[in-house]
Amino acid sequence: MSERKYAILGTGALGGFYGAKLQKVGLDVHFLLKSDYEQVSQNGLIVESKDGDFTLPQVNAYNDVAKMPKCDVVVVALKTTQNHLLSKLLPPVVKDDGVVLVLQNGLGIEEEIADIVDKVHVIGGLCFLCSNKIGAGHIRHLDYGHITLGEYAAGYSTIGITDRMVQIAHDFQTAEISIELAEDLLLGRWKKLVWNIPYNGLSVVLNARTDELMADTYTRTLVKQLMYEVKAGANSMGRTIPDSFIHTMLDYTMKMKPYRTSMKIDYDECRPLEVEAIVGNPLRKAQALGVNLPQISSLYHQLKFLDGRN
Amino acid sequence: MSERKYAILGTGALGGFYGAKLQKVGLDVHFLLKSDYEQVSQNGLIVESKDGDFTLPQVNAYNDVAKMPKCDVVVVALKTTQNHLLSKLLPPVVKDDGVVLVLQNGLGIEEEIADIVDKVHVIGGLCFLCSNKIGAGHIRHLDYGHITLGEYAAGYSTIGITDRMVQIAHDFQTAEISIELAEDLLLGRWKKLVWNIPYNGLSVVLNARTDELMADTYTRTLVKQLMYEVKAGANSMGRTIPDSFIHTMLDYTMKMKPYRTSMKIDYDECRPLEVEAIVGNPLRKAQALGVNLPQISSLYHQLKFLDGRN
């Protein structure tokens, strides 16, 4: 059994799900909570999952990082709109040679975290998970759950597959979480944006589900144009997304069940949107390298307006 | 007194207003109506105007162009979404050497009309009018009313100020309608698009009034970027819009009273949007000349989706 101690910062639909899976197989997990702290410290976590429901009546719950033990792996499972808190949250809870595992969408987060905790290793995780928090400490896992891990190195240079990645993958696989290891975190992040930018963005601006965006010839064209701009953005940072990947994403979404994106759910629930991580950062990265992404820029400005008004 | 006979195709907020003003000063005006025909043929037109209310108890009303006399000047005052009807509406009503006066928004309409009635002169009119139809044959004029006239020549080459323009201007001025004559219709059309594309488009997509679009830094930036794309579009057709004009439009809109654009009103009332004339045609004109307008293209695709769903 692993000796690694895990911290979960953000015990919601994602952090609560993965953290509970890790604890269920005997790993030492410590959960940071905010509004659900009282409930979870008294009653633990409930996970309803298509892979089998389970309950953890007793978990290590905290409402303050200062009370948490130093951990080997600190999982960042907050919404990126909370990332301004990380400079206070991370230093007390991560061991000197530990790992911060960023299970968030968007671009550039690992870089920000590496600036906060400079002796720590930063690993990015791209999650394909469909789950909701349906009450305090109560998570409903609907589908998927796969994570692709890639380790960050300065300037997003390619570092390959490290021992740390292998060790963490082992723990997650023990917990029956499907893991893939990627040699190039940055390429993985840009590839995920191929889906996230058009569908998250347009679903909010046009008040539409994925199936509506794909059924209409005009939005289908716009989605594709946006995907090609993401490809151009990746290219500006030296990463190549093949056209075949774009076609696969379009086909895959055509065949998907009608889906309300996470950004649309946030918008409908009047929560702040993850615009900066998902749209703003990729846009600025490319612009800084002299590549203009005008349609993503349009979407960014529209989303910022709607987010501000919401 | 002018001998010119006028036809008004589309007796709504705009055609009804200008036509009534012309008849009021004694000109011979013939109105084509559809849903309001019964009401107007029996009771005439009522105009409430900031410049003075008036009633025309008796007007020449028609529900069929075949019953109308041949006219010297046929005013097209339909929404552009009805322009597929023009190939049937125009030939019966316009004299051989007559004029079609297009009081519509957008680009490329004169060209389409010149193809329909090839021995007829086509003049474009850019209207700055704020009026509503508040009931059958009942128009409320709120503000403005100015028209800029420019004559169309094949390929939008500059034809200067013609006698026909001067004669029509005389009739309109007699009717107390402010008129300006433009030597370059195409430049005038593109300049009007500097305002129409961003504000009409974004007001629908973002469900916002002009003041909201200008109060937010992100949409203000996007409006400006769209204006510069309109400038690039004009440039592709050899017309130069000075930057100072863009700044004037921004300042002017900043100072305007909160305004719901005509496209937004159409959208809210579930009427078809004038997307093709105002956004699609300019986009395609520029594209045909090798100039891509990506942010206008985004807006176009978004509007087509919303229009289709509405």
Can you give a write-up of this model?
Two copies of one chain form a homodimer. Chain A is an alpha/beta fold and 310 residues long. Chain A folds into two domains: 5-183, NAD(P)-binding Rossmann-like Domain (Rossmann fold), CATH 3.40.50.720; 187-309, Orthogonal Bundle (N-(1-d-carboxylethyl)-l-norvaline Dehydrogenase, domain 2). The first copy, chain A, is 46% helix and 22% strand. Chain A is built from twelve helices and ten strands. The first copy, chain A, has helices at 15-24, 37-43, 86-93, 109-116, 163-174, 185-205, 210-215, 217-236, 243-255, 262-268, 275-288, 294-309; strands at 5-9, 28-32, 45-49, 54-56, 60-62, 71-76, 94-102, 121-135, 138-151, 179-181. In chain A, strands 1, 2, 3, 4, 5, 6, 7, 8, 9 and 10 form a ten-stranded mixed beta sheet that branches. In chain A, a hairpin with a 4-residue loop joins strand 3 (45-49) and strand 4 (54-56). In chain A, helix 6 packs antiparallel against helix 8 and helix 6 (185-205) crosses helix 12. The first copy, chain A, is globular, with a radius of gyration of 19 Å. The N and C termini of chain A lie far apart (47 Å). The model of chain A has no long low-confidence stretch (mean pLDDT 97). The A-B interface holds A 202, 205-206, 208, 212-213, 216, 218-219, 221-222, 225, 294-295, 297-302, 304-306, 308-309 and B 202, 205-206, 208, 212-213, 216, 218-219, 221-222, 225, 294-295, 297-302, 304-306, 308-309.
